[in-house]
DNA sequence: CACGATTAAATCGTGTACGATTTATATAGC
DNA sequence: GCTATATAAATCGTACACGATTTAATCGTG
């Protein structure tokens, strides 16, 4: 192992010694884009974008969430989630209704069409597993590590 | 391990059995956003956005690349890279000059200011390492696994 | 040399992300 | 019961991403 690959001792880690291809941030950035590209043809068949699909997954898991709750699950703010949910509404996959008890809140509910859409995504997991080129166990392990990293990063950013 | 956590036998893997929090795509998506958030305060000090920073890293690694070469390194198309590089030009970090030999190509060169900016990023690596909350060795291993996953996904998408 | 095919950037339209602000509603303290 | 504060969404402006197309330059073949 060369010094460049090692990046030197940890206490002297210098950004400039690391090539872009070995940046953790870049591997996350480009892997996310690559995942997006694998999903794109699957999602085009059901007429959703990638973030819209993630919002639908959150709703299939629990229907009737508030805008803020969906945002919390996706780690997004209302300024991103609100227009996204309006598009899902215009596609007739969800309804947006102000809560009677608290008029500040907007509750999102799946329509029949939105609920039915879940069936069309049943084989997505096996498609992604195949595309990932690793075993189920390795994928699960990697997923857990990335999630742990994310939570550490979020804590550090807060 | 329950059936839900296991997702069932691999040959019967069903998307609907997996909660959003255990989607590999969502962990990549949210970890990428989390990384972005950790970088944001660092990048604000030097006046760059996250993708602009990645483009600068590519140029610090090799100056004088073509628009298409930078796009290939970042896995982005000209429709994304061109406006990004124009912004870096308006910030006086790079110059954009059409090649004399082939007028279709535009070569990007670091300005003195753009070259000097690299010095301000020296401690980014140790900041990210600290924020990631894992050891250098674990980080390196994780980075390699994510990169391998990305390459598999890109091959599957092609 | 001519001309169709190819290539490199750029352009355009849609949809995220997000900082900052605004609007509307609810709650707390006096 | 009235006002200050807090909260939930929504709005606005900027900057990615990317599919589709356009523009301009080069190349290949006759």
Mind explaining what this structure looks like?
The structure is a homodimer of 158-residue chains. Chain A has 158 residues and is mainly α. Chain A has a domain at 20-122: Orthogonal Bundle (Arc Repressor Mutant, subunit A). Helices cover 61% and strands 6% of the residues of chain A. Chain A has eight helices and two strands, in the order αααααββααα. Chain A has a two-stranded antiparallel ribbon with strand order 1-2. In chain A, a hairpin with a 7-residue loop joins strand 1 and strand 2 (106-110). In chain A, helix 4 (67-74) crosses helix 5 (78-90). Chain A is globular. Chain A starts with a helix and ends with a helix. The model of chain A is unreliable at 1-10 (pLDDT under 50). Chains A and B meet through helix 2, helix 3, helix 7 and helix 8 of A and helix 2, helix 3, helix 7 and helix 8 of B. Chain A binds a DNA duplex (30 and 30 nucleotides) through helix 2, helix 3 and helix 5.
In brief, what are we looking at here?
The structure is a homodimer of 158-residue chains. The first copy, chain A, is mainly alpha-helical. Chain A has helices spanning 3-6, 24-46, 50-61, 67-74, 78-90, 112-117, 124-132, 136-157; strands at 94-98, 106-110.
List the helices and strands and how they pair.
The structure is a homodimer of 158-residue chains.
Chain A lengths: L2 H4 L17 H23 L3 H12 L5 H8 L3 H13 L3 E5 L7 E5 L1 H6 L6 H9 L3 H22 L1
Antiparallel strand pairs in A: 1-2
The structure holds a DNA duplex (30 and 30 nucleotides).
């Amino acid at each position: 192992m060369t010094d460049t690959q090692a990046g030197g001792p940890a206490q002297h880690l210098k950004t400039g010694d690391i090539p872009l291809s070995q940046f953790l941030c870049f591997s996350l950035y480009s892997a996310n884009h690559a995942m997006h590209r694998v999903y794109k043809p699957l999602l085009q068949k059901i007429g959703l974008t990638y973030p819209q699909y993630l919002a639908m997954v959150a709703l299939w898991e629990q229907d009737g969430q508030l805008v803020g709750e969906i945002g919390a699950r996706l780690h997004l703010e209302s300024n991103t989630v609100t227009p996204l949910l309006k598009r899902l509404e215009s596609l007739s996959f969800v309804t947006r209704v102000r809560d009677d008890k608290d008029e500040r809140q907007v509750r999102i509910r799946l329509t029949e069409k939105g609920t039915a859409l879940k069936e069309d995504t049943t084989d997505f997991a096996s498609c992604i597993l195949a595309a990932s080129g690793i075993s189920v166990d390795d994928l699960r392990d990697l997923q857990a590590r990335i999630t742990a990293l994310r939570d550490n990063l979020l804590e550090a950013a807060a």
